[in-house]
Amino acid sequence: MSAAVSSTVALGGDFAGALPELAVPWRAEQFPDARLLVLNEALAIELGLDPSFLRSADGVRILTGDLVPEGATPVAQAYAGHQFGGYSPRLGDGRALLLGELRGADGRLRDLHLKGSGMTPFARAGDGLAAVGPMLREYLVSEAMHALGVPTTRSLAVVATGRAVRRETMLPGALLARIASSHLRVGSFQYVAASRDLDLLRRLVDHAIRRHHPHLADAENPALALFEAVVAAQASLVARWMLVGFVHGVMNTDNMTISGETIDYGPCAFLDAFDPATVYSSIDAGGRYAYGNQPLVAEWNLARFAETLLPLMHEDPDEAIALAQEALGRFRPTYETAWTAGMLRKLGLGDGADAGEASAVIAELIPLMRDSRVDWTSFFRGLATVARGGADPVRGRFIDLAGFDAWARRWTALGPDADAMDAANPVYIPRNHLVEEALASATAGDLGPLERLLGAVTAPYVPRPGLERYAEPAPEDFGAYRTFCGT
Asked: 35: buried, middle or exposed (CB in 10 Å: 19+, 13-18, 0-12)?
């Protein structure tokens, strides 16, 4: 049954009403020449919105923040954060606005948020704008992540603003309309903790529980219960990143959500050749946010989150620290459990497989792949052919053939399920060379390559004739890949 849709957009002020200290009323800049580039019609319907209305002149005005629905109060959100390990007490939405909250057709409350809508009081000397390429990157990658089953913010639309943006060169401008369970971040709590306003901190905890963990409403220790829930959510999230070969690129505390959704797709990328030390971001010179560091960084960020909640966890500081340490100590085993379960699915090994042998198979595979820099995605997809007894499409990718042969014998002895592997291992991901190709074409005015890539990565597990190049690793002449934040 299709969801009911509406030609109006009703927005609430849940965040702004509950936490006015973190919400600065603001309006987006006006873009009279705005033009819709891409609209996520399926998501619009899921939200109870009429895609045809969003394509209209008034719909585009809503998507740019120019037309504000009656009763809505757009706000720029305040937050702090550790950026590459250094603390900044005042960050906030420098080029973004929370237009308000939507009640979707499923009854869930979600934020409608703009990115690239102009300068706010938090702009920090930035222009508050965004370019077509980075906004389409977020649209493309976030929708691919959703299709891969990774919790994520979603992209509703990208709108060309008709205004040029100065970066290294002059680029066409755009803004993104983003959907999220909320935009509460670890940095939101850091901002409040710095104020030493315990009443505000309690209200923030209560708001986070109400939005994301309502089952904790009657918890004896709400702050501790919230922390435990976020630890579990982030452990699961980062394990999913690792399993699909996703590199976030800028895991600052202001980019870690309380909901457990992936947010802020700036210099993100997907692994080609497997190497835990892989870094794509041009601003991560020290490799802090390398692929293999992501679990450790998430744990570090959560420690910063715990620090903000200590005054509410227990009146005795030593007791509060002990409670926080015990809860944080569950991150690693929770992550390892999620990672191992995911790897077993990728290898087609169900509950019937010998646990010790299965764990050994995983442990032996990782260094083999690293030493040969094997393509992460196509290896696991191709491995299903081996499980079916067909011609081996992956053996030739390894330098240590004897080592791989020994590993393959051990793995096949466990009876892998090839169909289960196909359900766990995508054919298509947003491969970096294809993303760059699509974004360059879109920036030049041709959306065709982007639309074709979107079609592949939003149905990632089903191979289709004519899409063979979308399943292939980057050509050798693609070279070393670097990504940029786009700010």
From this structure: exposed
